[in-house]
Amino acid sequence: MDSFRTIVNIPKSRHKLDYDTSSLWMGSCFTENIGLRLRDLKFPSEVNPFGVLYNPESIRNSLVILTEKRSFTEKDLLYGNDLWYSFYHHSSYSHPDRDICLQMINDSIDRASSLLKNAAFLFITFGTARVYKLKESGAIVSNNHKLPHDRFESIMLEVDDIVDSYINLIGDLKEFNPGLNLVFTLSPVRHWKDGATGNQVSKSTLMLAMAKLKGTFNNVSYFPAYEIVMDELRDYRFYGDDMLHISKQGVDYIWKKFMDSFFAPSALPPAKEIAGIKQGLGHRPFNPDTEKHRLFLRGLLKRITAVEKSLPSVDFSGEKREILNNLENPDGGNSFP
C-alpha cells in the first residue's frame, strides 16, 4: 500500500478560468473562502452580492433579482435594532442610515447583474436544506437579523422542491446568459444546530438535488469540496477551533485542488506573480524609513506595472496609491489589507 488515505479524483473542467473569464460566486461562507481568493488574485469576479447565503431557496431568490436587475426601494427595507435591513440580505448590508443601506444593496446588485450577464461561470455553494419562513408573510428569509425566533417557521426542504425550483431558474439563466456554466458545490461546514443526524439529512438532501440537476443540464457540473474534506482530509486538525468550519490548512488544500481543475495554464504564471506581489504588499518592515525599504516598494511598483501591461483588465490602483503614500510618508507605516 503506497497511500494511507483515499484520494478524490477530480476531472479537469472542460471550461477554464482565466483573466478574461468572469465568475459569480453565491452561497455559504465556504464560497467566500474560495471566491475571495480568486478575487484577491485579480480575476474578474463578484462574491456574494447579497452577503453569505446558506440555503438553496435564498440563493435562487437572489439570482432571480440579479436576472431582473431589480432595484430596491425604501419599501423593501425594514428597521429594527437601530438598523435598516433587508430579509434578502446578510446583516453585512444593514446600516443605521436608510439611504446608505439602499445604496450598498443597489450598487452590489448592479455590479453583480452586469457581471452575470457575460460571466463564464456561476459557482453556487449550498450549506443547508433548512429554511426559515417569516410567519406573517410566508416568505423565506436569507437572514433573520437577530429577530425573535417565534416570528419564523423552520422547514427542511425536500429534494424535489429544490430540483423543481432550480430547473426553472437554470432555464431563465440560460436565456439571460447562454454561455453561462454552473458549478455546484456542497459546503463541508457542518450546521450543528440540526444535530449530527439532522446535518447529514440536510447535506444528503442537497447532494441528491445537485446530482439530479447535474444529470439534467449539460452546462451544470459539480466540484467535490465536501468529499475532499470527508474522504481525503478526514481529521479534526483541518477544522477551526469550533470544530465545524474548515481551517486555513484545509482551505489551502481545497484551493489547490480547485486550481488544478479549473485554472487555464495561461492563468498560472500571472496568478503566481500577483500572489507574490500581494505577499510583498503585506510585508511590515521594522524600519520603513530606509533606502532599502524604498527600493523594495519601487520594485513592487515595477512588478505591478509589468502585470498591468500584460493584463490591462487587472486593477492595482488601490495598491499603487498605498505604495506611493508609503514612499512619501514612511512613518505612517504600511496599510495594505
Task: Detail the topology: elements first, then pairings.
Layout: E1 23-27, H1 29-40, E2 45-47, H2 56-68, E3 78-80, E4 83-85, H3 98-118, E5 121-126, E6 130-134, E7 140-141, E8 152-156, H4 159-176, E9 181-186, H5 195-216, E10 220-223, H6 225-233, H7 248-262, H8 268-281, H9 291-310, H10 317-328
Parallel strand pairs: 1-2, 1-5, 5-9, 9-10
Antiparallel strand pairs: 3-4, 6-7, 6-8
Helix pairs in contact: 2-3, 2-4, 4-5, 8-9, 9-10
In short:
The protein has 337 residues and is of the alpha/beta class. It has 10 helices and 10 strands.
Structural notes for this entry:
- The chain has 337 residues and is an alpha/beta fold.
- The chain has 2 domains: 23-263, SGNH hydrolase (Rossmann fold); 271-332, no CATH class.
- It is 46% helix and 12% strand.
- It is built from 10 helices and 10 strands.
- It has helices at residues 29-40, 56-68, 98-118, 159-176, 195-216, 225-233, 248-262, 268-281, 291-310, 317-328, and strands spanning 23-27, 45-47, 78-80, 83-85, 121-126, 130-134, 140-141, 152-156, 181-186, 220-223.
- A 5-stranded parallel β-sheet has the order 2-1-5-9-10, sandwiched between helices. Strands 7-6-8 form a 3-stranded antiparallel β-sheet, with no helix packed on it. It has a two-stranded antiparallel ribbon with strand order 3-4.
- A hairpin with a 2-residue loop joins strand 3 and strand 4.
- Helix 9 packs antiparallel against helix 10.
Residues in helix, %: 40-55%
Q: Give the tally of structural domains.
A: 2
Give the biggest beta sheet. 5 strands, parallel
- Uncertain segments are none
Name the beta content range: 5-15%
In CATH, what is the homologous superfamily of the largest domain? SGNH hydrolase
What would the CATH topology of the largest domain be? Rossmann fold
Order of helices and strands: EHEHEEHEEEEHEHEHHHHH
**Number of helix segments?**
10
